[in-house]
Amino acid sequence: MKADVFDPRALREAFGAFPTAVTVITASDPAGRPVGFTANSFTSVSLDPPLLLVCVAKTARDYPAMTAAEHFAINILSEAQKDVSIKFARPAEDRFAAVDWARAPNGCPIFAQVAAWFECSIHNVIEAGDHVMMVGRVTAFESSGLNGLGYARGGYFTPGANSSAAGGEIGAVAVLERHAALFPLGDQNLALPSYSAGSGDPAKTLASQLERSGLSVHDWFSLLDL
Ligand SMILES: Cc1cc2nc3c(=O)[nH]c(=O)nc-3n(C[C@H](O)[C@H](O)[C@H](O)COP(=O)(O)O)c2cc1C
After folding, report:
1. For ligand 1, which residues put their CB under 6 angstroms from it?
2. Domain with 207 in it
3. What is residue 95's three-state secondary structure?
4. Mean pLDDT score across all residues of the chain
5. Which residues form a coiled coil (predicted)?
6. Residues 20 and 65 in one domain
7. What is the pLDDT of residues 85-96, one digit of tens each?
8. Ligand 1 mean position, distance from CA 4 (Å)
9. Do the domain assignments include residue 223?
10. Which of 8, 66, 122, 148 could make a disulfide contact with 115, Cβ separation 3.0–4.6 Å?
11. Of 162, 186, 208, which closes a domain?
12. Is the same domain home to 114 and 203?
């Protein structure tokens, strides 16, 4: 597609192919009231000095307060906080009534149970079309170890669900060898025998399934956790 015929919706969808985490950017308005909204344009920028950025739409209700504030904070939502993301992306009188929050050292609202938070002083505000890029210098942060919430193509996902360490589905694949040759299963689409489950021991389940199919497995020499 050429630049002069861009369909904004197609462009938005193409940008949305890039999976991100989800944050809520917060600050205080001149009266000291908390302001904030959902933003996935967060990027870490520099370790030394510690810089990050987030893009803020000029049409956002909180745009004047955000860009006038001396400090802002980024709350990286954890995978259980999809409802927080939805709440802070919709117009509402008092979004903050729905969350448990406290103030960071420079007064920015920080939510409970986030994957991580950063409070920043404003380092630079860079013009960028219908948005500005707010570059912040980190003045305080905390990381909880919780998994972050994922977002791609307009939908939420939980990256931790694919990891056995996070208590998600676990699986085993067997590579079978018979008479010094690999022994895949299936008629046309040959595949390695596999088994996955939310709990239990997939390797043992896979072994008993193979036994039930009449395959007597003598030596398990390799097991992979997926
Ligand atoms: C997952 C997600 C990510 C978003 N990312 C951004 C963003 O990076 N920057 C932005 O300005 N708006 C972003 N938005 C839109 C704002 O959250 C939304 O426009 C919000 O309602 C603006 O608040 P307002 O009512 O104060 O205008 C995002 C929305 C969602 C659901």
Report:
1. 22, 37-41, 55-57, 60-62, 85, 89, 91, 151
2. 169-217
3. helix
4. 85
5. none
6. yes
7. 999 999 988 999
8. 26
9. no
10. 148
11. 162
12. no
Q: How many domains does the chain have?
A: 2
- The ligand 1 atom nearest the CA atom of 131: 11
Rounded to whole angstroms, the Cα distance separating 101 from 116 reads 13
Q: Which residues contact 189 (CB under 8 A, 6 or more apart)?
A: none
| 103 and 180 both lie in a single domain | no
CA distance to 15, 217, 220, per residue, from 209 (Å): 44, 11, 14
Residue 18's pLDDT is what? 97
Residue having the nearest C-alpha atom to atom 6 of ligand 1: 39
Q: How far is the CA of 89 from the centre of ligand 1 (A)?
A: 5
Do 153 and 173 lie in one domain? The reply is: no
Give the residue among 57, 39, 63 at the shortest CA–CA distance from 130: 57
Could you give the CA distance from residue 120 to residue 194 in angstroms, rounded to a whole number?
48
Query: What pLDDT shows up at residue 92?
Result: 84
Tell me how far apart the alpha carbons of residues 85 and 223 are, in angstroms, rounded to a whole number.
39
Both structure tokens of 90: 């919709």
